[in-house]
Amino acid sequence: MTAHLFAISYDAAQPERLARFWSELLGREMVEDPRDGVLVLPGADTEIRVRFVPSGQPKVVQNRMHFDLTSSSLEDQRRTVARALELGARHADIGQGPEIDHVVLADPEGNEFDVIAPGNNFLAGCGFVGALACDGSQQVGYFWSQALGWPLVWDQDEETAIQSPHGGTKISWGGPPLMPNGGRDRVRFDLTPAAGVAWQAEVDRLLSLGATRIDTAQDGPGRLVLADPDGQEFSVRTPR
User: Fold this and answer.
1) Nearest by Cα to 11 from 145, 187, 209
2) What three-state secondary structure class fits 222?
3) Cα–Cα–Cα angle for 10, 235, 63, nearest 5°?
4) Phi/psi of residue 29, each to 5°?
5) Helix (H) or strand (E) holding 87
6) What's the confidence (pLDDT) of residue 94?
7) Are residues 146 and 217 in the same domain?
8) Domain end point (choices 124, 148, 173)
9) What does the alpha-carbon distance between residue 86 and residue 115 come to, in Å, rounded to a whole number?
């Protein structure tokens, strides 16, 4: 019994505008979420849906999750950067040194993402969205492997990564030192129970794996908010 990763959700001041940016950058269809917000749909079975939900909370710290976009060549990397800037992205300084070969950008609402240089073996074959790179512990990598039923594809020096058995985008955690928790997370996982699994049974399973209930005042329409062992929020979508 495993949960299904319904989407990576972003809080957004202007959900439709931000969804349009990512839709055009990723080359995917954008639709309304029947419950709340806007969805950028996967273009293939191994891609992850992205969701943008309205929020009045301003972004004040660096996100603990960001996308790594892949490149087939240096020219391809330059094209992706130029396209992102044309759509409304900007260059971002998160303390990276001049020696790095990836480009750090921020979307129109300041959410960081990287455009990775060609030749990255870790992301080979993962698609354009090569990884969702997360700040997190080894323990939380193990938690999410069990929660989603995605096997570990990297477990070394307290860094972990998981990937769907069908391939596609990896989810990785960089290990210590961990970033300070800057308040409610603007980027998080949205889960749904697997087919045939009762919603409460899935919530109970996630709690048994190490998730915790947090302030129910943060529960939104159609979702229950939990936290993983690192305190990173995620949502379990409730039955309609």
Assistant:
1) 187
2) coil
3) 35
4) -75, 145
5) helix 74-87
6) 79
7) no
8) 173
9) 15
Q: Cβ contacts of residue 154 below 8 Å, gap of 6+?
A: 122, 160, 161, 170, 172
- The reported pTM is 0.94
| Cα dihedral 110→111→116→120 (10° resolution) | 160
Question: Is 2 a domain residue?
Answer: no
Say if residue 24's pLDDT is above 80.
yes
DSSP 8-state secondary structure symbol assigned to residue 232: -
Q: What is the pLDDT of residue 217?
A: 58
| Residue count of the chain | 240
pLDDT of amino acid 204: 96
Domain count, the chain: 2
| Residues 166-202 pLDDT 10s | 999 999 999 999 987 777 789 999 999 998 999 999 9
Same domain, 44 and 96: yes
User: What does the CA dihedral 195, 237, 135, 227 come to, rounded to 10 degrees?
Assistant: -110
pLDDT band at 238 (very low <50, low <70, confident <90, very high): confident
112 and 215 assigned to the same domain: no
pLDDT the model gives residue 95: 78
Residue 167: other Cβ atoms inside 10 A: 14
Boundary of a domain, candidates 173, 196, 224: 173
Lookup: tokens for 56: 């009045």
The domain in which residue 221 lies consists of 187-237
| 216 — pLDDT class (breaks 50, 70, 90) | low
